[in-house]
Amino acid sequence: MGTAHDWLRAARELAARDVGRADVELLHSTDDHAVLHLRADAAAYVLKLASSATRPALDYTRTATAQRLAETAGVPVARVVAAGDDGALQHLLQEHVDGAEWREVRPRLGAAELATASACIARAVLRIQSVALPSFGGLDEPPGGTLVDALHSRIALRVRDEERRALAHGVLDRHAGLFAEPVRPTLTHDDLHHANLLVRRAPDGWCLAAVLDWDKAWAGPAESDVARMAFWDDMTDPVFWSVYRRGEPAADGWAERESVYQLLWCLEYDVPTPRHERDTAALVARLA
Asked: Using 50, 70 and 90 to split pLDDT, how confident is the model at 152?
């Protein structure tokens, strides 16, 4: 694929099949994936396209499955219109959701508004984690295996750099005993950062409009999502934890496992910024 012309042509063909004639705007693209905005009559949509070669790391059929599971549990998500793979190109067509990114809104909120929004986000995380799954691993994988097995598989899938991948496997092996106690597999988003939470104003304050970007979703432990949220700036606060812990009390060993989950994210998200390198080094010193 690659060029803007190619992505636009593919988008128009898919739109004609699923929603009719549409105006198409390319929002973002690389050589192997693109995001486009579609408008057909009075309706707006977001279309994600990717080369079939990006599977299994990126699988829009799996993404659609995760969104539908979350929607059934009462999590606000973009409604999936169509998803599939023709062997060369995979696609995910979903309804556009109006709202603003949490990182844009949060700095403008007073204490009462922030408390309302934080409680809403915590309840949404609990709803995600209410989706019980048969075993740990990919949503499209057969049941079987332990949490440690599934985490090793996630490392192999998500950590691209060979040296960092070896470090992640080593840390997990060293601390495998922390994950020995049985926990329930739940739907896990794995990317609940500011840009993936859309909020909008409601009569009783700011509320969550949609949880976006389920491309990394899997059957994981409830702790994984909140460990990452705790690591990222301004994603949690005392109100969030008060609401969340009423539904999901902290288990023994949480603080140690939290650091492991955070390091796995640092090694996956390999960006050469001074802040990220300092954070990664601190976790490595603590765990490795």
From this structure: very high
Encode pLDDT of 35-74 as tens digits. Answer: 999 999 989 999 999 999 999 999 999 999 999 999 999 9
Total domains, the chain: 2
**Which of 58, 78, 95 is at the close of a domain?**
95
How does pLDDT run across 234-279, given as a tens digit for each residue?
999 999 999 999 999 999 999 999 999 999 999 999 899 999 999 9
**Pair of tokens at residue 271:** 């960006």
Determine if the pTM surpasses 0.90: yes
Residue 255 is part of which domain span? 100-287
Give yes or no: residues 45 and 123 share one domain: no
Phi/psi of residue 141, nearest 5 degrees: -100, 150
Strand partners, 199: 100, 208
Residue range 89-144, pLDDT digits in tens = 999 999 999 999 999 999 999 999 999 999 999 999 999 999 999 999 999 888 88
The per-residue DSSP string of 141-197 comes to: SPS---HHHHHHHHHHHH--SHHHHHHHHHHHHHTGGGG-S----EEE-S---GGGE
Task: Give the span between the Cα atoms of 286 and 288, in whole angstroms.
Answer: 6
- Measuring CA to CA, which residue among 72, 79, 122, 101 is closest to residue 222? 122
The reply to whether 172 and 63 lie within a common domain is no
Report the distance separating Cα 120 and Cα 208, nearest Å: 6
User: Which residues, including other chains, have CB under 8 Å from residue 28's CB and lie 6 or more apart?
Assistant: 34, 35
Contacts of 275 (CB under 8 A, 6+ apart): none
* DSSP 8-state assignment for residue 233: T
For residues 84 and 133, is the Cβ–Cβ distance under 8 A?
A: no
